[in-house]
Amino acid sequence: MKKNVRIVINGAEHRAEVEPRLLLVHFLREVAGLTGTHIGCETSLCGACTVLLDGMAVKSCTVLAVQADGRSITTIEGLAASENLHPIQEAFWEEHGLQCGYCTPGMILCAHDLLQQNASPSEQEIRDGIGGNLCRCTGYQHIVNAVKAASRKMNQRQRAAARAAD
Amino acid sequence: MANEERPTTTGFSVIGKRTAMVDAAEKTTGAGKYTDDLSVPGMLVGKILHSPYPHARIKRIDASKAQALEGVSAVVTGEDAPVTYGILPIGHDEHALAVDKVRYVGDNVACVAAETEAIAEQALELIDVEYELLPAWFDPEQSMKAEAEFIHEGRPHNIEKEYHHVFGDPEKGFAESDYVHEARYIANEVTHAAMEPHSTLASFELDPHTGKLGRLTVWSSTQVPYYLQHKLSLVLEMPMAQIRVIKPLVGGGFGGKSEVIPLEIIAAIAARAAKRPVKITYTREEVFWAHRGRPRTIVDLKTGVKKDGRIVAVRARVVQDGGAYCSYGPVTILYSGALLGAIYDIPNVGYDGYRVLTNKPACGAMRGHGTVNVRFAFESQLDEICAALKLDPKEVRQKNFLKPPCITVNNLRVLSYGLPDCVQKVAAASRWKERRGKLGRGRGLGMGCSHYVSGAANSIIRSDMPHSTVNIKVDRDGGVVVYTGASEIGQGSDTMTAQVAAEVLGCALSRVRVVAADTDLTPIDIGSYSSRVTMMAGNATLRAAEEIRKQIASAAARKMNCAPEDLVFREDKVLNNNLGARALSPAKEHRNAAEILETTDAPRGPSVSGRVEGQILRGSLQQKRKEEGPKDWMTFEEAVVAAIDFHGALTGTGSYAPSLDARGGKFKGAGVGPSPAYSYSAQVAEVSVDEETGEVTVHKVWAAHDCGRALNPVSVEGQIIGSVWMGLGQALQEEMVWKDGMLMNPGLLEYRSPSSVESPEIEPFIVESIDPEGPFGAKECSEGSLAATIPAIANAIYDAVGIRLREAPFTPERVLAALRAQKNAKKLNLTEGVDPTSPARFREHGGALWFRGKGPQRHPRDPAITGQQGSAGGDD
Partners of A50 in the beta sheet? Predict the structure, then answer.
């Protein structure tokens, strides 16, 4: 009863025959070999496995691989364009927004979704936005600072790009 | 500060700067590998069969059906490795897989190694185990009264260990006191809940001489690679030299990975039986069963003071619910006593500690090991005394400060003591004097203090071996490789190591590469726990780097026609300081240094490891400069080349053992508590209490921490915030809830670790007392802050609404009950209509075992059934 799926991950197409029960997170880690997406609980509570599904943050342990058929996934490995880090990755690095790093990929992708919807979130909006992603090291404070810094960076770059276009 | 920028022997160029973690790149891009990310060809998946009973004898295990299932390579049981082990030499009471008895719901019975996880799970269902149920003990105070059916042989009345310490004369002290306060405090059980579930991959290679299974390599999520190597050697009956333990990235530890966790040995046993590599990764529920967290602790505390608040005597009776195995238990119960009174100057201390066995997962070490729950009791009681005597809690603490350098009444050596500054800082920042008691009903401020060791002065392996040893190798192009056994678990140990090496060698941080925690490559280090790494591995790194510096200096001095002592290593250069000091005014010297920086080709920043062309170019420049004859300064690379030309290889070793006078007294149990240095923390919490719902909101915590010297201030702040936050979780919401030995909340939703939404702002203040024994004066910063948070919040709740909460966590139920008691209102029955045998604060579902129809059965003679015993240990 295996199903064929075609999933575009970080721009590259992956075709495989999978069990219908296979979770997207297991597809990413075991079929596509992308281990940057971590598993913290397998029950959609911790958010460590957050990825972007057609640009929207989802917990990939709550999505079946067959549900992602024909759709596009971005994992932490695919966030940075070429050699440059994404501004959110830079901000987490610079603001000490991580310690053990296990929640970091999910946290970054969740922040990505948040900043797509709201380019300049307030502190409370950031805290609400990442509320589904648990971190056990940082007490969230440096993560919140990192998201603020990322927001500033992205807005600055957008303005610079707009000026360049003028 | 211009002074710090000058290349002289004072001031620092690497440490003390806000430095991003050296492993941040791999962690922000997903490139870093944790154990579960690893796989090797032919690898099998291991799954463990757990006991559904809290206490039972195993009569028979029939694994033949599981063995016969297609895709199953091996099924292993206790018979496959019957040797006992335990983290403490005095506590070898565990089997990797149960041999005769199971002792808690979740205990390990068998393991299947199969091609896929699904096959392994199917095989678990086919294992037939016959159990004979035994009476089980869930409450420590009941368990202590047991007369038969003890959990372990040789532990009568289920008491793992008891200690009775008297320092000074507590009874005389109470008699001389003007006021004596006595109360019972309870802190319920909490667990680490690190984000990464435990994972182990074990793989044997063939012995080249015999063709049989030879060396074992284990990749594991561990804080203590060397202890793991040792215990594997013990249980698998192999020499340690035949075992290699590698620690990949670890996704948080907090103590939960600071001892050998069953899966780490089970994976190796299964790999041996299957003759193929086996990886086991715990599910989140299994992580809760593996536990080793902070025990439920009952503290009966008595404090006597003079009218002015000067503490005269303290006596505590502490009972810890240790769970089914020894684990770190004796150390935990000793820490509770040793650090109880040692933060203040208290002349008379009495302590009775009982570590008790129960049929629940074993408790072990958790952040703030042994000190947290007694600190909650002590700092709460101090606040109660202040309320009774109408004294300011801040001033009372100030009256009781130690006067270092000193030896505390229980023989702990204190050289640096930043607590007075910590108290001052948080009092000022929170405007304590103006605002405490004046925020109106419903809102309040509370203060708490805590302290912690910077590593234990006496290692649990009783030997004279240094606690940390570090090797450094320098390559010809100036690349510095530090080999350390210290385990990076997110706390920043690799970054600290690189910083210390770079500071001593005066080279760019980017030259330094840290190879850590691989028992084949890195010299022995006893691991990352008890906040020992900066003090011990930091000192070892410092000494190894000094040895290297000496070798470079002797070679460079020849080239520069000066004495080695005249040389200064700064900013990727070796400079003749004497020349600078003699010939140049400070301003000129400064300019000179700047000129030097401009004119050199020394690579700085991320390009250090450089491309090949770059190296060739640098090589030819070096050659040119080499031919120029004696010089006033050399680049780090030139100096390294000179040293390698002279010495051959450039390697250095440094080690650290705590100084003898820091190792404490001679009485039984004196080994636990002594440390080379202690950290100190003072905190003020601001809370509001909703009197309708009982909900407590923490608005802000001001936290000052004395870490000796902040080697990396941003990392220190991260540790302070993380510790305070974890304390806040224990104060308000985290709690393991039990029913008949079964964990009711084995999931991240039910366990309720605080999310970003309910986490307040925490403002960290760094206090630097510059400890004489720490590397550059540094001491602990990752644990000590946790303990102060819980009493600070309890005291703030008292300030807000006048209720005293003596049981943590301060859930809305408990707050509401206390508020109603305050108003003499009728007690709310929150459990009306709920199963009468369930705990009063039954809240959550019972986990997978429960749903599979394998819920715990009770022995007919079980006291809980006959009604002689209270129900679950965690019951109200």
Answer: A59
Q: What angle do CA B795, B452, B382 make, to 5 degrees?
A: 25
- Within an 8 Å CB–CB cutoff, is residue B829 touching chain A? no
Show residues of chain B in contact with A101, CB under 8 Å: 23-24, 26-28, 32, 249, 251, 490
Dump pLDDT digits (tens) for B85-125.
999 999 999 999 999 999 999 999 999 999 999 999 999 99
CATH fit for domain B2-32+465-656, picks 3.60.110.10, 3.40.630.30, 3.30.365.10, 3.80.10.10: 3.30.365.10
Instruction: Give dist(CA B521, CA B449) in Å, integer.
Output: 41
All CATH 3.30.365.10 domain ranges of chain B, comma separated, are 2-32+465-656, 156-191+292-459+663-822
Give B760-813 as a DSSP string.
-EEEEEEE----SSSGGG----SSTTHHHHHHHHHHHHHHHHS----EES--HH
CB contact under 8 A, A93 and B33: no
Look up the CATH architecture of domain B35-134+197-250+257-290.
Alpha-Beta Complex (3.90)
Q: Which residues contact B134 (CB under 8 A, 6 or more apart)?
A: B55, B56, B57, B101, B149, B859
Residue that has been written with the tokens 């009493």 in this structure: B791
Which residue ranges form the domains of chain A, and what is each CATH number?
Answer: 3-78 (3.10.20.30), 87-165 (1.10.150.120)
Q: Please compute the mean of the pLDDT values over residues A5-32 and round it to a whole number.
A: 97
- Cα separations in angstroms, B43 against B202, B244, B341, B818: 9, 18, 52, 56
CA B545/CA B655 separation, integer angstroms: 11
Question: What's the whole-number average pLDDT of chain B?
Answer: 90
Helix (H, G, I), strand (E, B) or coil at A156: helix
Task: Tell me which residue in A38, A93, A138 faces B20 most closely, judged by beta carbons.
Answer: A93
Contacts 24+ apart (CB under 8 A), B231-239: B231/B85, B231/B87, B231/B260, B231/B264, B231/B265, B232/B260, B232/B264, B232/B265, B232/B268, B234/B83, B234/B85, B235/B81, B235/B83, B235/B85, B235/B96, B235/B265, B235/B269, B236/B81, B236/B265, B236/B268, B236/B269, B236/B272, B237/B83
Distance CA A60, CA A58 (A): 6
SS3 of residue B727 by DSSP: helix
B169, B187, B69, B85: which is closest to B121 by C-alpha?
B69
Take residue B302 and report the two structure tokens written for it.
Answer: 């008595």
Instruction: Please state the rounded mean pLDDT for residues B710-726.
Output: 98
φ, ψ of residue B795 in degrees (nearest 5): -70, -35
The CATH number of B156-191+292-459+663-822, from 3.30.365.10, 3.50.50.60, 3.10.105.10, 1.10.10.10, is: 3.30.365.10
A43 touches chain B (CB under 8 A): yes
Q: How many CB atoms neighbour CB B862 within 10 A?
A: 21
Identify which of B36, B715, B755 has the shortest CB distance to residue A134: B755
CB within 8 Å of B124: residues ≥ 6 apart? B47, B48, B49, B66, B110, B112
Q: What is the ipTM of this complex?
A: 0.98
Q: Is A125 on the interface with B (CB under 8 A)?
A: no
Integer Cα distance of B484 and B502 in angstroms: 15
Whether B466 and B540 have beta carbons less than 8 Å apart is answered as: yes
Q: What is the mean pLDDT of residues B27-52?
A: 97
Q: Using CA of residue B705, residue B708, residue B713, residue B719, what is the dihedral sign? A: negative
- Which residues 404-463 on chain B approach chain A with CB closer than 8 angstroms? none
pTM of structure: 0.92
Chain segment B396-427, per-residue pLDDT in tens = 999 999 999 999 999 999 999 999 999 999 99
Residues near B765 by beta carbon (within 8 Å), at least 6 away in sequence:
B422, B425, B426, B429, B702, B703, B704, B705
